[in-house]
Every structure is written in C-alpha cells, then in structure tokens.
Amino acid sequence: MERQQQSHCSGCGVKLQIGNPELPGYLPEAAYNREPVICQRCFRIKNYNEMSSVSLDQDEFLRLLSGIGEKNALVVHIVDLFDFEGSLISGLQRFVGSNPVILAVNKCDLLPKVTNWNKLRNWVQQRAKEQGLKTAEIVLCSAKRGQGFDRLLDAVSSLRGRRDVYVVGATNVGKSTLINRLISDYSDLEQELTTSRYPGTTLDSVKIPLDDGHYIVDTPGIVYPWRYSELVERRDLDAVMPVKPLKPAVYQLNAGQTLFFGGMGRFDFIQGEHQSFTCFISGSLKIHRTKLERADELYRDHRGVMLAPPSLEDADKLPQWQRHEFRIGRGSRSDVFVSGLGWIKLNGAEGAVVAVHVPKGVKVLVRPSLI
C-alpha cells in the first residue's frame, strides 16, 4: 500500500483496515489512492446514502469520553432540542471534570418563529442544572440553517484559550454537521466529516488540527436505547425525525379520547375537564383521534395500514407497547415528552390524568412546558 501514513478514515475517524469487510474501517486496498482516504462505509453514505450495520461498542464510547476530564479541554456538548431529555448526556459532568462546557442546543429552526428565545434559554439552563450539568455558555443554534453559529464561534473563541475543543453528544444530534462548519472557520482541511441521518455515523475520535497546534476533536455519538430514533427501522427515520419547522397541532379533547401518532405512539386523555392539547411531532406522522374505549381495537385492526408508519412488518420488530400514566396537577404548565417522537403540551390549568403508549424502553416523562 502506498498510503500507510494515513491510518484513520477522514470521514468517521475509525482505524482503517483491509482485512474484513464486516468490521469498522474496511476499505479495498486500491481505495488508498483516493483523496481523501475514507472507509467503504463512509464512501457509501456520501455517494449512495446507504448505511451499513457497523457500529462501535458502547463501552468504547464511554472509554473515549472518560479521558476528557484528564485533559485541558473545552467541551462543546451538542443536544437536539426536539429530543432534549433524550439526547442530553446527564452524566457528562463526571467525564469532563472542571473543564468548561458549552451547551449547543441544535435544531432550534424546528420551533415556531414566535418562540421567545430568552425564555427558551432559561428553560434549557434550568433543565441542564437539574441534570447536574454546569454550563459556561448556552447557545441556541441550527447547524442546518447556520442560525446562532456566529455566537457559537464567539463562545468557542472566548473560552478556548490554549485548549483542544472536544465535541460530544448523542447520535444524530447534528454533531458532524456542526463540526464541518467549525472546520471551515478554524482549519485549512478540505475534507469534511461524514454526515447522514443515520445514528452512529462517527465511529471514532476525529482530530482536526487548528492553526495554533491544538485540535477540534469529534467524538463518536453516545447510543441511547431510550430514543425512538434508535428503535425504528431506518426507512422510518424520516417519519419521526422532523426536518422542517414543526406545525403545532391543537386538539380540543374530552376525557375518554385518544390520539394516535401514526402507528408510533398513542396519547390517552383519561380524566379531567374539557381542554386543549398541542402536539409537537413530525409532520410526516398523521394524527388520528378516536374514543378511548375503541383505541385498543383500532390499533389491533389498523396498525401498519391506517395507523402507519411503521408498516405491519416493521411494527412487529419493535418492543411491545408499554403504558405510562401521569397525573398532572392544576396550574401545571407541562409537556408529556416522548424521546425522539416529540411532546404533547397541556394548555389548560385544570389538571388531567393522561397516559402514553410507546414501545417498551422509550423514555417518557412530564416536564415544564418548553414553549
């Protein structure tokens, strides 16, 4: 081979190898002549939007994170606003030690334009604090739209000093997309990191040299099994992960009514006064309203057809649905949050008893209203 000096993929950071096509980092020997040198998996993602099942062991993810606290580093933690509680690394503080943390809240372009951004920033700060995360700066941004990016660059510049910049986050929160924007401002490298809508695109740390001898380090995404995006088949990712601004859907419900979100989940209004609920979910999921007493029968007879996606075949691959019941007190402005699927806001102050049905293992919780 002519290019032994490059031992890692320029796209995802994994160590390159020519021995086994089933393992991470494989590329044909002849591919070492390409510029830049990337593994076969990254080549297929970039050129054909394909995705292999190659992934890195969870212990390896944690091993890579655990070394950050021993370094002099600035940590940029990227979270997905649409899946905030599902993508926040709640134990990050024990990994980063005393290093400063910028919390970059990505995908803010999904929220309605009338959103009060100061209130949103305060909401993020409070939720992060409750999870034990200390933040030096909170930046609301959209890597896709370029919104808030100047502010993020300013925060990185003011806090970096002579530190390396480590970028961490869960899978599919827009980490590599945002890093590619950083590269264009801080580095002369021409290649970009591999980006896709599939979880786990980055397989190992990717180090991008800066002009002062330090690095931007892109770490692999943490795979959290409680996120809907980790459970559904890849062909259904577009249905649960919105790419366009959310269009809130308001429903006036009486107790004893149910909403189905395609065949992905179900919301029951069990007890309470007539009131409105606002659904913040992907526009690709059609919402069906029915009576609670008919909900089980409707799902049994129509899942995978009228209640789709997922298809009947893909629905059978998901864990059995689990019911989560919540009693929400009077005067509580709350969201019922489903990790990776969205949230339902209770608009009234009357209180309610509600239940959510989603595949077993998906994180469901009640939180103060985001909007």
From TrEMBL:
Pfam family, one: MMR_HSR1
GO function term, MF aspect, one: GTP binding
Superkingdom classification of source: Bacteria
Residues in CP-type G domain copies: 62-225
InterPro entries: G_CP_dom, GTP-bd, GTP-bd_ribosome_bgen_YqeH, Mito_lipid_metab_GTPase, NOA1/YqeH-like_C, P-loop_NTPase
PANTHER family in the record: GENETIC INTERACTOR OF PROHIBITINS 3, MITOCHONDRIAL (PTHR46434:SF1)
Record protein name field: GTPase
Organism: Paenibacillus stellifer
